[in-house]
Design goal:
Blueprint lengths: L4 E2 L5 H9 L3 H8 L3 H9 L4 E2 L1 H11 L3 H4 L10
Antiparallel strand pairs: 1-2
Helix pairs in contact: 2-3, 2-4
């Protein structure tokens, strides 16, 4: 994906969601995105998303962005 931000591992998002006790629906609502993209990222069927969405997902999980997306810096994108 051009300009995509890649998850650190196939299970990174699933593990973070489990630790927070969040469902796909709950995380999608918190991050302000569709359930389908969260579901694809969670299952490992998709490994990347936009930097903006990566930042929203990390914020919704209340974790530093680099824990999920190691190529991103804390504080968002340029």
């Amino acid at each position: 994906m051009a300009n995509g931000t890649q998850l650190s591992t196939r299970t990174a998002l699933r593990d973070a969601m489990t630790a927070e006790g969040l469902s796909v629906r709950q995380l999608a609502k918190r991050a302000g995105c569709g359930k389908s993209i969260i579901g694809l990222l969670r299952s490992g069927a998709r490994r990347s998303c936009s930097p903006e969405l990566a930042a929203k997902i990390a914020a919704a999980l209340d974790i530093p962005i680099h824990e999920l997306f190691p190529d991103e810096k804390d504080g968002g994108t340029d």
